[in-house]
Amino acid sequence: MSPGPPVQPTADGSGGEAARRRGDEPARPQGERRRVPVPLLKRRMPSGRGATEQPNATGDDDAALDAPFWLALVLTGVATGLLGDLMMWLLFGVQHLAFNYSSGAFEQAVERGSDLRRVGALAVAGVVGGAAWYLLRRYTKGEKSEVDDAIWRGDARLSLRRCFGTSVISEVVIGMGASIGQEQAPKLMGAASGSVVSGWFGLTQGQRRLLVACGAGAGLAAVYNVPLGGAFFTIEVLLGTTLLPAVLPAVACSFIATLTAWSYLPSHATYIDIPAYHFTATIMVWALVVGPIVGALASGYIRLIGWVSYHRSAGPAIVPTMVGAFVVLGLVGLQYPQLFGNGKDIVHDVFLGKGTLVLLLALFMLKPLMTALCLRSGAAGGLFTPTLATGALVGAFMGTVWSHLWPGSPAGAFAMVGAAAMIGASMQAPLAGLALVLELTRSGFPLTVPMMAATVIATAVARYVDGYSIYSARLPAER
């Protein structure tokens, strides 16, 4: 006679057979998930149902949340916050040297500069950035600095020197006006911190992967003061799971890095004077209409980013290519100084409802093109704020047109809904998109429902049309 099925451990991890003989445990259903780590309380609820019937209460898998991991996480969070401060200090210092910028809107400092200074600063950025990236990539060939690729397909090991060099060069050229996002440097340094610290503690590959992802998301959180958005970015974009063993360290690392970054960066919202726009029927209906449009636009934008990333300049040709691209940006920026930098001031202006229809349309067409041009030249930088700006411009433009047909909401309210929808669709991360816009303003909560409607529709459309995100589209070719 063949032996019966093996006795399965109970849902709380205790020894099932002995407990059942004592009458402490009901029979465990076949296939029930095992709880790891084993809880202190071994007795089940009177119903006999297991705690792991809630899907996120499962085990730690290959990333045990043990004491060494938590200590490594704290160190990674602190390092990420301090390195985020360093990157922003470098960015502000370069902006001051290039355009005498000290406070207020960066675009105003650019406007005060002469035409020669504007174009000249970007030309110098092309020479410095092109030469520096060529040398860095030549002498660190084979060393890894692609965070997303390392987490999704690799062993999550990153080269500290290549990550640091890439981050410094990126902030320097952005400070001189390059139209790329500033968040890649702190994201990269947070991830590199996790990689280094995991080596110190001898963590497993699963633990290292989790720690590197937490550091990357915490870098975004620290420099934009968006701890919740950074945690959502970690679990939704980098890890693709909302299981508790991933959520806990993501939230912890994000708040630790943000708190640490307050030692230099301000603790208030990035956009501090945005009105608390009211919910109206017109913006609710508009959100349902504009969602598919934003989703389709996001798909095209992602394809553009993927194409320029694959065809970006490399080798010695990067220097003249980058100089040429940056000079083109400078010349266009003589008419539209808002295009200088990552796009933070564009977002601020449209959230406040500023800008004519003609200006909004022009910036909507030019901002993604200038960002793509910079990436095509071989520059490395982020896409968060340029994408946020593109969505805000789409929302403000289409909302202003809509208001002529159905008045009731200001252009700034439409801009916030459009920004959330574009970020959610472009990142393929609706929760992160919503959380980021709400935290960046801390005044958008009355618009939560139309934001959610537009974001879920836009993300769904982008997913069914193509399925790539601004991160998966930039992955390097497999060799």
Characterization of this structure:
The protein has 479 residues and is mostly helical. Helices cover 64% and strands 0% of the residues. Helix 4 runs antiparallel to helix 6 and helix 16 (411-427) packs parallel to helix 18. It has helices at 16-22, 67-99, 106-112, 115-139, 147-152, 160-175, 184-200, 205-224, 227-239, 244-261, 281-310, 318-335, 344-351, 357-376, 384-405, 411-427, 430-441, 448-465. The protein folds into 2 domains: 67-261, Orthogonal Bundle (Clc chloride channel); 281-474, Clc chloride channel (Orthogonal Bundle). The protein starts with 15 loop residues before the first helix and ends in a 14-residue tail after the last helix. The chain is built from 18 helices and no strands. Mean pLDDT is 90; it is low at 1-26.
The H/E string reads HHHHHHHHHHHHHHHHHH
Percent in strands: under 5%
CATH homologous superfamily label of the largest domain: Clc chloride channel
In round numbers, the mean pLDDT is 90
The helical percent reads 55-70%
Q: List the uncertain runs.
A: 1-26
By helix and strand content, what is the structural category?
mainly alpha
Count structural domains. 2
How many distinct beta strands?
A: 0
The CATH class of the largest domain, by name, is Mainly Alpha
Any idea of the CATH topology of the largest domain?
Clc chloride channel
CATH architecture label of the largest domain: Orthogonal Bundle
Biggest sheet character: none
Give the distance, in angstroms, between the N- and C-terminal Cα atoms: 54 Å
Radius of gyration based on Cα positions: 24 Å
Shape: globular
* DSSP summary: helix tally: 18
